[in-house]
Description:
The chain is mainly alpha-helical. The chain has 2 domains: 1-125; 127-236. Helix content is 61%, strand content 0%. The protein is built from 12 helices and no strands. The termini are far apart. Mean pLDDT is 89; it is low at 40-45.
Amino acid sequence: MEQSGTSTRLAGAVHGLTSELVSALRSGGPFRLAGSVLGGDGAEAADGLALAAVRVVGADAALPSVLRRTPPASDDLAVFSRAVQAYPPPADASPTSAWSHWAMRRTLLRLDASLDGAPGHEAEPRTVWLDDVPWQTLTHQLAVLAPLAVPAGDCGVTRVARNRPIDVARGFVRAVRRRDWLQAAGAGRWLVLLDDVPETLGLETGLEFVAHMGGDDPRVALQVRAAQLMRTGARV
Length: 236
């Protein structure tokens, strides 16, 4: 029962953080990570649940700053840094977990390379696990790693995606047909950054449809709004 209660509280914290990120991306208003997860009590007040919520959201916890191309407040960076350091992937972590953590490290350095205690420029995880996978599997994995889909976000995973735009487009259509709105939103986010996406896909209309059908799921809304902003080149 205690474990179930913890999972429920974590899910609630993740939902709340994601909802605030969506609100900031839609309105263009201010977003404070520290205030969102800590109630304004400062970075040092972050407990395990708050830091775990940031880790689950991953690099997207800093997405407003990344898209605005402006540095976040120092206490926001401190919270983000603590989440990176508090939950390193274990030696037997899945490739997606290793890449998710790497994306957070890279985002931290991208926003403030001089931050005290920031991780160093560690090597990228390998992408061999994505080599020659079926397009269905590729789309699923890319959707899980949607936080890597950011402007000027060159890395091994983005290079794999760039080499297979048709497959990602097929995966987007399949996800829509299967009513897997979260996967469709993640795939759509990647597609806005790829060249040679078929015009017949109707990506802009497709993203609007996914946003509508995704209902109240802030995870879907976050991916779609990020995709729309990157598609237009807008700063939030």
